[in-house]
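Support request, please re-run this one:
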Amino acid sequence: MSKKICVVGLGYVGLPLAHAFAAKKYNVVGFDINDRRIEELNTGYDRTQEIEKNQLDDVKSYIKYTANIKEAEDCTIFIVTVPTPIDANNRPNLTPLIDSSGLVADVLKKGDIVIYESTVYPGVTEEVCVPELEKNSKLKFNKDFFCGYSPERINPGDKEHTVTKILKVTSGSTPEIANEVDELYKSIIVAGTHKASSIKVAEASKVIENTQRDVNIALINELALIFDAMNIDTNEVLAAAATKWNFIKLSPGLVGGHCIGVDPYYLTFKAEELGYKPNLILGARQINNGMGKYIAENTVKVMIANDKKINKSNVLILGVTFKEDCPDMRNTKVVDIIEELKVYGCNVDVYDPWVDPNGDYSSYKHGVIENPFESTKKYDSIIVAVAHKQFKELTGKDYEKISKDIPVIMDIKGIVKNPNWRL
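Re-run finished. Output below.
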């Protein structure tokens, strides 16, 4: 392949994308500011568990991992896949995007294309990133260099819907560049592409994907709160309603992760900046953000009803990642349960077989214990928070083994037979 590609950011999005291009025999430079990440990838280890060692080994002659952007000087296409988080006030934090644009600008040349995949509100590519590229490179947008936007659609932990099997939205800063960006992705995406009419349309399409899911899940969570007050099993109600062909069946639960719990704030930020109050979206966010507290409060109520002490009680939470069978802990809402239980004076242990107990998790301060089923410690209550395959295999005897007296089991994911309480 004549094009040489630099993928900036080698996380859950960047690494699978870099691998997909390398697998098609493109020459790829994989850039990341994390030296440890680069060292691991050079040994064939992916801590995200998205790409297996043998897969990395298969393409090692086509990809170079580096923390030095100067090694991408001969690349002609730069694809930016860095995180776009929110700050403590739920406002977009564009720092990673701005910083990475500055780095790319250091090696940008005439004729190069910079494609962004990070989730943003409409306008960020052209209004925030492009000025950064122009300032640092001294080149002129749409004259010397060009841009594209193709929103990521990675689903962490999903080994079926991998990057090449998910239809890709593409766009470019000129009609000609839009075609070139589209053809580039078509060369690796077997599911096909959808070429949007503009970068802003492509940006908007991404941010509403997860906003729609957030609002839909918020409805189900609110129904769960209502039915719980009525002493009706929400899951039975949903199963009955789903017998109609056009009912959208979702389950109540925690809404965390890097997308659904974050992306809506990018859209609401821009809407409010333009003078529009997005009440429905913000209301959905409020409902979903309150589910951790609600689960903790119900845990305390059920414990009291079962003559369990609360202050200094031992509570075990099974699972801390934001979704099942995946080590991704970004924006996990299990943390909300932990922190609320600690307000009540509970001693909380967290066990997750997908998380390294000795790992470095800068945004998570509660720790992870070794396998409690191999310990003698007993618990007053057990909260099943994530539907990992290991937890689906647990039996009543397993819970009895680690419980004080009769087990008090709180089932958030609907995988426990006869729990004391189910969301």
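DSSP finds 14 helices and 13 strands in the chain. The mean pLDDT is 94.
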